[in-house]
Structures are given as C-alpha cells and as structure tokens.
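thought: fold this chain, then report.
action: predict
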Amino acid sequence: MTKTVVFLGPSLPLAEARQLLSDALFLPPCAMGDVLAAVQQHAPPALVIIDGLFERTPAVWHKEILFALSEGVAVFGGGSMGALRAAELHPFGMRGVGHSFAAFASGALEDDDEVAITHLSAEDGYRPMCEAMVNLRHGLALARDAGLLDAAEASALVAAMKRVFYPERSWHALYAQALTLGLAPARVRALQAFIDTHRPDRKADDARAVLQAVRDWHAAGAPPKPPVAFEPTVFWEHQRAYHGQPAGSLPGLRLDRLVDHVRLGIPGRQQVLDEALRSVLAQQTSRQFGALAVDDVAAMARFRRERGLEKPAALRDWMQAQGLDAAQCLSLARDEARERHLHWRLQEEVSREIPRVLQRRGRLAAVSAAVREQWAHMAALGIDTPQASDVASLDAALQWYAGVHGPVHGDLQAHIVERGFGSPQQFMGELVARYLAAHREPMETA
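observation:
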C-alpha cells in the first residue's frame, strides 16, 4: 500500500512523529510544487501538511492542494503552514486539525506570522531559533488562568509581542517586555518558572493531533471522500509544467531540480535557455497563425536523420535514454517542423533581425568582412549576378556545399525554402559565389 506523505519540520521531532504514524513517508517542510510532485510521484492515499517554507521560497500553492483533493487524496493540515492552508481550503475538502486551524478558520487569528518561525536545517533537526506567536499566546493564557497575570496584563503582553518581528520573538524577549510594562521582577520570575515547567507548545500539540487524526482515519478504513471539482488555469499549467513530473521525463527526476541544475550552469547553458525561449515563442506564434500543417513522416525522417538515428535500434535506445515514447518523440519532431515553417512564414522579419543578432554576438565585423571579400572576388571575375553557368560543374558545387553544411536530403526545392531563400535562383547565386570564393586561385605577385 502506498504510504501517507507527511511534510514535517520544526513543529515536532521526527522520531516522535514516527511513533505516532509509523507507516508514513516523512518529507521536509513543503514549498511550492512539493504537493504536486508528491501526488504525481507517490500517489498517496493521504497527504499531511504540518510545516511549510515561505518568504525566501514560494509557499505551497492552494491550487496544488486542490489538485490533490481532485485526485481523491485525503489532505490533512494543522500545526503551522498546514493550519493556514486548511483554514483557507476546508470548504473545499481539506481537513483541518488543531487549535491553530480552528482559530484561523473562525477568524480569531488572521496573520500568517502567528505560526511563522526561523529554524535550522534538517541536519540540526530543524531546531527553532525563535518562538511562534501562537505558543506565546498559549503560554500567556495558561499563566492568566493560573492567576499569574490578570487579563489586561496578558493582553498587553500579547500586543507587545505582536509588535516584535517574528524572528526575534522568544520567551526571554517576552520577559523583557513584561518588565518594561511594569511587572515586578518577582512576578516575572514566577512567570518564567511557570513557563519552564509547562513548556507550552501549541504547534507541537497540533502536530500530534493531526498525526493522530490521520491514524484514526486509517483505522477507520480510510473512508473515501468524493474528489472535488478541479478547474485548471493558465497559471496552473505553468506551475505544473515547472514543478510537476512531465510526460516523458525520467522516473524519480523532478523537473524543477533539472531546470535549476541547468540554470546554475552546464556546458552550453545559454544555448539551452535560448532554444527553450525560441521554442516557447514558436509555439505561441504557431497558435496565432492557427494550426500549422506538419507532414509527420517527413518531420520524423528529418528528426532522425539530423541525430544519426536512421536505424530503428539507435532510435529506440535514444528514446529510452531521453525518457520518451513514440508519441512524445513525434511531438518533438513536429515542434521542429513548425519552427522551420515559421522561419519561412516570417523570413522578412527574420532577415531584418540577423544583423542585430550578429552585433549582439560580436560577429558582425567578421561576417561582414567575409561577405566583402567574397563579392570583391566576384567583381574581380567580372561577375555581377552569379549563375549556375559560372561554374564548371554545378554538381561539384553542390557536393562542396553538402560537405561544408551537411547533406541535402530529399527535395532540393524544399531545402531551398527551408533555408529562407525566395527562389532557387537566389540560392544558386549565393552558392556559386561562395563556391568560387572558396576555390579562388592564389594571387601571384612580382
């Protein structure tokens, strides 16, 4: 049976959590994309959010929790980030547990900073570096009920600690505030002794309650709940494409980790990013033009040819290495074919942009020099408009061209169009000029 997934960090020690829910997969605090990835990779019967990341990392998105619910996953929340998301999504089927969830759901608490803390890394057990506001509130309420504070003093201390930036909140900071508000030192020492004895920890209590609720749910036979309706949006598709497990990806590999690895640096990093951008723009432009007809046989043949995959075994091995099935491989070939079609449809715009690209890459001077040299040679030969009759053998010129720029497969006319030339005469003129320039005789000097 697939295990329940639990996102847990500083709210409760992992060892204690495992005692409460032994048959579960415990993962670090969740961020945006983690719930989506957990659903797609593990297909859990239940998913529990206790702790989550925020501020420097995008927080877990409501939409991915709704997606989990739509897939029939029972989603529980409480303690920290889980309490916030459950309060927001319990009308849609997320199950909230604990005091903090109840306070957020009722409106008694509204601010995210009530459960926010800073903490150390997993290697240090996510040890908290400050105290959550809900814990301070709980401790002060206990002290008030025990007669150590009156209602006005407890409220004043709550208000004072709310004015403190959340990473700086602690019991010692609260004791300092109590002295500032005029509490006698002896009363503050009594308050400290009370807190040290009772160790109020609302977040830990709630985390235990959530895990107990999940255990009870399993004991009851994991009663199913009808999946909620899910409406995908443009933003959802973008997030799913980035954080999810993409079709054709290698098993166990998250797309966000692959993308981040590329972004930090691999050989040809910028070329990969540039090509990804070009692919996105090509797809958007294709939609603007409407469906661009693609000859699947020709597109796939060229795709295989350009990668040296003419043999079926070579294609099969390559597809397996790239995590592709036949339909996904054909989709890539169609994308390339559409890009070539767009080059033809937008050749005037592309032509105007070529000098700017050369300038941006610092190559305009070198390419311009080669063009001047080529046409200076044509002028020296007395050729103004090169034609096929200017070379002894057009076949020899075409063979030279294929040797330099790759073989011309299939229809030469189609190749000429793909190269962006307006006519065969225009292509042949440039080919002849380039061939004659490359084969010119060295000049003799006296």
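thought: worth noting. Residues 269-289 form the longest helix (21 residues).
final: tokens above.
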